[in-house]
Amino acid sequence: MKKAISSILMIFFTVCLMAQSISSNGFNPPIVRKGQVAQYSVVLKDVEADITAENIPTPPELQYVGSGVQTRMSITNMQTPVREKILTFNYIPTQDGEFEVKAWEISAGGKTYKIPAASLKASPNAPQNISTSSAYDPFEEMEEMMSNFGFSQFPGITRQRMRKSAPQETFDLQKETSAEIKFAAEKIYVGQAVPCQVSFKFSGKILNSDIKLRQLTPSIKNSDAFVCQGFLTEGKAVETKDPNFPVEFVFSTVVTPVKTGNFKIQFEANGIFSSAFGGFFSSNQNFTLTSKEQAVDVLELPKENMPSGFSGAIGEFEAESAKLDESSLSVGEPCVMDISISGTGNFDRISAPKLSPSQSWKEYKPKTSFKDESGGYGFKGVKKFSYTLVPTAPDLKETPSAVFSYFNPKSQKYEELKIAPVSVSVAPSKSYAKRKAQTQDEKDPMPIIEETPSALQSSSGILASPYFWLAQCAALLAIAWIILAKMKQNKLADDPVFARKSLAKSELKKDLASAKSAAQKNNPKEFFEFGARALQNSLSVASGFDAGAITRTDAISIMNSLGFSENDQKFAAKIFDGADAIAFGGYTPEANETGNLYSELEKLCQTLSQK
């Protein structure tokens, strides 16, 4: 009897040992798209082993994003029950290609188990299949719970019956969805802010199933040639007349090209479906939708008829009448004049309208404010410029006028908005009247005095004094300085090229100082901004062009005509590109770049200003 029991136990333990194993089911699914999740599973049968993601020799192109554990008991033909533990490791391929997890080993219970190699393929042509049933099976937990109470067969039967009542259905998203771009035009200009809509359509087959759309987040794909501010508001669900795709979600944004040439623009959206199993349990399923590419021709702004005051504004704008906070003034009393520009376009590139030159008014740099009417995109609204003006002479009848220049992409022409002056009354101040009276007294002729011999003697004594001649030399130098200043002032008024060069020289020093300060503070935004201005002013000194109108292309052309090297031209282009990219919001340079760039910037600007 004892021998029989021993034989039975030996057979039992032998069967248990034979049931022990560690294996892998490889990847599921074996083909996915870049950025989608694939599960790598390891199955442990009647064996305990501590397995983590570090044990699996995955290639670097597969990004680990989490793991899970499932356990269950299985009985086949009333044989010994086997406890299974399924470890799932989730991976996302970061690029297209075929990646292999090489064969590896794991030790457990004094034995070594060999796991065969497995491969995962990432391809843009991989099907996106969404199931109406959850990838997570809640009945497996129920089966394990019931087996702990001695019910080893009941859960399997229950699960089989309930699965029959909840049939699965699989959708191919390539057939059941559609993505389109609604762009304003096929030809746009570099720097132009263009409104754009992206729509994602879903078939009635998906809408009538038990999966629900929980999230849909679109983004631009080829961002090297375009800057997109993102999608600041959620998409709106719109009913369509298309029987195949009755509902679409429309997202709005603004796109700005930063390069000239022929490009293709494309958007994609990452989303999440929530699917229910049996109406109670649910899980999330990730998916990606990609729109068709749309060709866009990005043109350079025409140089012909470009106004001297053009600063890069592109769009359709209107100017409101200028407003003055106080129309009755005294000489030396400041006032504030507001000029507002409204419309649609790239408001971030709009500079203050230029005031007409006047020696009777002292002008200070205006303060700027913007009222956005485009939901945060800065594409539509009103930009206000507040100028502080101080009258320097009495009896003035009006303030200076102003001119705002911009490029209209519809008419494909440069246009100007002329802002009329505001009527004003300027009275003399007390101090001004006093100074005027003193000036009048100084203009009165000196009284004639008859000289006596004693007076002549004293005069000869003065002539012999060295202090007298020093005073005469100082007076002559002062007169010469006044004459030269007057000549320069007349030249500034008569020669606009000379005036632009003189202004550019003074502004160049300020911009270089600001760029140097930004470099020392490791502030790349300010460095590129002031660096681009410094280059514009140094190029203005070298060419006589208006500094604010010099673009990247103009800079290369001027430097090429002056014989500058290709390296110098590339450096200038880098500064202009950095400033534009920061202004459009698509580029964040490293802080340590500025320290290495300033010395080269200063050298180039000094060489240009000496041409």
TrEMBL record:
<keyword id="KW-0732">Signal</keyword>
<dbReference type="Pfam" id="PF13584">
    <property type="entry name" value="BatD"/>
</dbReference>
<keyword id="KW-1133">Transmembrane helix</keyword>
<keyword id="KW-0472">Membrane</keyword>
<feature type="transmembrane region" description="Helical">
    <location>
        <begin position="467"/>
        <end position="484"/>
    </location>
</feature>
<protein>
    <submittedName>
        <fullName>BatD family protein</fullName>
    </submittedName>
</protein>
<feature type="signal peptide">
    <location>
        <begin position="1"/>
        <end position="19"/>
    </location>
</feature>
<dbReference type="InterPro" id="IPR025738">
    <property type="entry name" value="BatD"/>
</dbReference>
<keyword id="KW-0812">Transmembrane</keyword>
